[in-house]
Design goal:
Layout lengths: L18 H7 L2 H4 L3 H17 L5 H19 L12 H13 L12 H37 L4 E6 L2 E7 H26 L1 E2 L15 H8 L3 E2 L3 H6 L2 H28 L6 E2 L18 H24 L14 H21 L4 E2 L1 H9 L5 H10 L4 H18 L8 H5 L9 H5 L1 H7 L8 H17 L6
Parallel strand pairs: 3-4
Antiparallel strand pairs: 1-2, 5-6
The chain binds arginine (ARG).
């Protein structure tokens, strides 16, 4: 058999693999990232095989010791990855046989690379989901604390990016937090479907050896073995689910990023971001740019791309395993890395946001943000809402002409538009009165924001998280 033909399947081949084809079909340059999970899966498989009498205990021990040594070689950077050996699975198996001889060749009894790779990716995803979840929780906690601190800080609320009504800064931050609470649930939901074990499906139909899949699943911390071997080796819907979660999360982070970028501008001047999250310009000495939120906003695109790549990769694939599926790894790895890094950046940055309260307050005072409050005041005094709307519209037109906000007008000025208006109107025209009046669950009143922050803390600690 030619050297260039892979030793583990070269038996039926009569000519060596074309050198380019070998490189083209190899995945070892990227799937070596699955080495730890591959070894973990192999150790569980060998343990189970010995348990059912397919391997002797000595064979099992030789395999496990060899694999542990290989793990050490990989960690120390001493492992020699070989492209002709195609992928992480065959590289590790070949090294095992180098080390322990013929027993190494028994490890693959009762399994195939098809169930092996599907198992490795699921183990990898589970590990990464747990790391991502830690960052996501840290970010949510940071937001909840910031919101609690800023429950009374007043800023303009916007619709169409035009000043609409005053809100509290804490309320705005809790709106972000709600988005992340749903993302958190989506992540944990995805984890449930990731944590199912394909091992034992073998190539596609199962195996003739008396394997015990419950034992292997238990050893690897899977919730259960998969129900159908054909499905188990072929579908990557769990990877699509993860990248859907990732896309929605990044969409949310991009919205927050956009607001942070706007708020740090001189035109808004709502917040300061500490220098450590910003960079300068090589030409304009005065510049301090909000690079971190800008970059998170930009990274959203690549994650959407990975979702599209995986959906398209899976589309129309006939059962069972197809080599197409080797293409699942790079998008998935990059989605995992991007999500983890963006969450870390945000979790570090959010608690450091410094609201410029006076500037936010001033912005809310301008722009007639209490116009709705004046209308509601008239309604409480018996005016129909549509008529109240008209009366307030006329007062705003007058304010635009005289450059006065509603709260800056005298009682006589306001009475021009309706003589129902009285001295008590000034209570509702203040920003503090306006936010305090929205005093119901989900409203912007400071005491509602504090209560909502407390509920968010409780809801988060009640979540069944990673592995629990
Ligand atoms: N490197 C392959 C992958 O990532 C492993 C499975 C290969 N199976 C096969 N029948 N060629 O999908």
């Amino acid at each position: 058999m030619s050297q260039a033909t892979n030793q583990s399947w070269g038996g039926r081949f009569s000519e060596p693999t074309d050198a380019f084809v070998a490189r083209f079909t190899a995945s070892v340059n990227f799937d070596q990232r699955l080495a730890r999970q591959d070894i973990q899966g192999s150790i569980a498989h060998a343990t189970m095989l010995a348990g059912v009498g397919v391997l002797t205990d000595d064979e099992r021990d030789a395999i496990i010791n060899g694999l542990n040594e290989i793990q050490g070689e990989i960690e120390r950077g001493e492992f020699n990855w070989s492209v002709p050996l195609e992928d992480v699975h065959m590289n590790i198996e070949a090294r095992l046989t180098d080390k322990i001889g013929i027993t190494g060749k028994k490890l693959h009894t009762g399994r195939s690379r098809n169930d092996q790779v599907a198992t490795d990716i699921r183990l990898f995803m589970r590990d990464e989901i747990d790391v991502i979840e830690v960052e996501l929780k840290r970010l949510r906690e940071g937001m909840i604390e910031l919101a609690d601190r800023e429950a009374e800080t007043i800023m303009p609320g916007f619709t169409h990016l035009q000043t609409a009504q005053p809100v509290t800064f804490g309320h705005h931050i809790l709106a972000w937090q709600e988005m992340l609470a749903r993302d958190h649930e989506r992540l944990l939901d995805c984890r449930k479907r990731v944590n199912v074990m394909p091992l034992g499906a073998a190539a596609l139909a199962g195996t003739t050896y008396p394997i015990d899949r419950h034992v292997t699943a238990e050893l690897l911390g899977f919730d259960r073995p998969s129900e159908n071997s054909l499905d188990a080796v072929s579908d990557r819907d769990f990877a699509i689910e993860f990248t859907s979660f990732a896309s929605i999360l990044l969409m949310h982070l991009s919205r927050m990023s956009e607001e942070l970028v706007l708020w740090t501008s001189a035109q808004f001047n709502f917040i300061d971001l500490p220098d450590r999250f910003c960079t300068g310009s090589s030409i304009m000495p005065q510049k301090k740019n909000p690079d971190v939120p800008e970059l998170v906003r930009g990274k959203t695109g690549r994650v959407y791309g990975h979702l599209m790549a995986l959906l398209t990769l899976m589309k129309s694939q006939p059962l069972a395993y197809n080599k197409d599926n080797q293409e699942d790894k790079e998008p998935l790895f990059d989605a995992v890395d991007t999500v983890r890094d963006c969450l870390k950046a945000f979790a570090d940055m959010v608690p450091a946001i410094e609201p410029k309260k006076a500037s936010m307050y001033e912005a809310a005072r301008r722009g007639f943000s209490t116009a709705t409050d004046l209308a509601d005041y008239l309604v409480r005094k018996g005016v129909a809402f549509r008529d109240a709307h008209e009366i307030v519209g006329q007062s705003v037109a007058y304010g635009l002409k005289t450059e006065k906000d509603l709260s800056e007008m005298s009682l006589d000025e306001l009475k021009q538009f309706s003589d129902i208006i009285d001295q008590d109107v000034f209570e509702v025209l203040t920003l503090e009165g306006s936010v305090a009046a929205r005093n119901h669950i989900g409203g912007t009143a400071p005491n509602q924001v504090r209560a909502a922050a407390q509920r968010a803390r409780e809801a988060m600690s009640a979540l069944k998280t990673g592995g629990a």
